[in-house]
């Protein structure tokens, strides 16, 4: 091979590599992908539920620290003094969710919800307790049920180093804000993997019509699980040749976990919040997951409706709260399915390639190839397809 040819080949390879590295990322709706039929909230995020804020701290240091923490605050006040109704649904319990038993017993949460990596969960809980005890009004508090979820980012992160500190927890909480939420390789999603590609933090929301209550449902996910990727029914993972139990050589691990955080302003009891949380699991299957043996999959749902807040101390033996009737829950069930599915896909579309511990690289989902597959299966720009194809 001549030196000139070698140089040209190297230049072409460099251009191809550079083009791939610079592939435009975006949320699924930026590319014409639509999930379900309901409209989104203003930011298509969990923060579309009034009062909910999200803060994140991302740790990318050296060649092996790829982790972080994500904080979800149900309201801006003292959550311990004004608790909110909540419930948990366990899809597969191979996880280390902290605070679960008290939520199931009492039906409320009294701290922000924090997400991080598996081995950092106790340290993050410690930082969360420090924060709660420091709040004005909590000077006499002697018990705090900190809520910390996790997924294992050890494939890219030095998880044994337990690098998330109490300081990082405080910074994430203090950074919490409404509006758009950062997605992809951020916060607790910095080192996660999803369905054979880079996972991360994703979010979405749905707004019910006024005739169905006008309520908002918002979802935030931390994706770190495997399976066979599907989008709107299209077999994307199979077409890309990257899926669990692929022959002759398996492409990726299936174990991991997924945390699904659900917020709504609908006046729901803990019982109906649990029913809502269960429906998020439909989306989990729709994107191609089956909850493997080693996947810890949890949905936490809470209501921000101010009439249903639970005071820490009260002289009233009976609470006067509102509870949406069972017969009116179906629109909310649909909303949580759609928002969860879109949040999962947003986490993948917004993620980028990540190289971490031991030089291991996890590639992001190739967007243009994915769009070509969706076109092939008539799963893109669904509202613009001819009616004959829609049927």
For this entry, give a set of tags.
391 residues, alpha+beta, 9 helices, disordered N terminus, L-amino peptidase D-ALA esterase/amidase
Structural description of this entry:
This protein is an alpha+beta fold. The protein has a single domain (26-390), classed as L-amino peptidase D-ALA esterase/amidase. Helices cover 27% and strands 22% of the residues. The chain has helices at 3-21, 100-106, 121-134, 166-174, 236-240, 270-286, 330-350, 367-376, 387-390; strands spanning 53-61, 65-73, 82-93, 108-109, 113-117, 147-151, 193-194, 197-198, 201-207, 216-224, 256-264, 295-303, 310-311, 354-355, 361-362. Strands 3, 4, 9, 10, 11, 12 and 13 form a seven-stranded mixed beta sheet that branches. It has a four-stranded mixed beta sheet with strand order 1-2-5-6, covered by helices on one side. Strands 7-8 form a two-stranded antiparallel ribbon. α3 (121-134) packs across α4 (166-174) and α6 (270-286) packs across α7. The chain is globular and about 65 Å long. Mean pLDDT is 92; it is low at 1-20.
